[in-house]
Amino acid sequence: MNPDSILKNIARHITLDEQEKYFFLSLLQPKHAKRKEIILQAGFVNSDSIYVNNGVLRSFTVDENGVEHIVSFAPQDWWMADLYSYFSGQPAVQTIEVVEDAELFLLSRTHQDLLYERIPKFERFFRILIEKSLVSNQQRIIDNLSLPAKEQYLKFCKRYPTLINVLPRKYIASYIGVTPEFFSKMVSSLVKGK
């Protein structure tokens, strides 16, 4: 699996010399994953940060009625984890599933701690990722509480432009918190310009 993408992802925030790149890459576990494969099951501890080299992942919860609620998507060049579980060591509340066949790089919590020890600038890199995730999640909560579904959909399109025509509509509907039927009517009215 070609590591160029993950190295470019890291280079956006920190600069690594050749030795540091080699050490970082030696800690990654490459994984080929098929559509519908569960990468993390709710109830189990999330022990890896997941980088999407290509493909698409989704994270979701399931309520007491068996209804799925999509929390987030991770397209190519994104990171994903159940952060609560990853940092607390408690069982995950989210399930992470492959939406489209994917090539992933997994970085275990143990190896991430080793990176912090040997190459301290990785603390900066992961701090930036976590800060961005925190801001994004807070904005999503505010949007869910205050914006109509149409506005939430338009924000979704802006956040995940590469996924609009890739994801099943029911996934997007779940993400913005509406039924698939309502979502279809809403998109039709947007296309018609209403």
What can you see in these coordinates?
With 194 residues, this protein is an alpha+beta fold. The protein has two domains: 126 residues, Jelly Rolls; 48 residues. Helices cover 47% and strands 24% of the residues. It has eight helices and six strands. Strand 3 and strand 4 form a beta hairpin. Helix 7 crosses helix 8. It is globular, with a radius of gyration of 18 Å. The termini are far apart.
Name a few traits of the molecule.
single chain, 194 residues, alpha+beta, 8 helices, 24% strand, globular
Summed up, the helix count is: 8
Q: For the residues shown, what is the average pLDDT?
A: 94
From the N-terminal CA to the C-terminal CA, the straight-line distance is 46 Å
Give the amount of beta strand, in percent: 15-25%
Number of strands: 6
Q: What is the gyration radius calculated from CA atoms?
A: 18 Å
Major sheet: 6 strands, antiparallel
- In CATH, the architecture of the largest domain is Sandwich
As for the number of domains, it is 2
Structural class designation:
alpha+beta
Encode the helix/strand succession as letters: HHEEEEEHEHHHHH
CATH domain fold name of the largest domain? Jelly Rolls
Tell me which oligomeric state these chains represent. single chain
Helix content: 40-55%
Low-confidence stretches: none
CATH superfamily of the largest domain, by name, is: Jelly Rolls
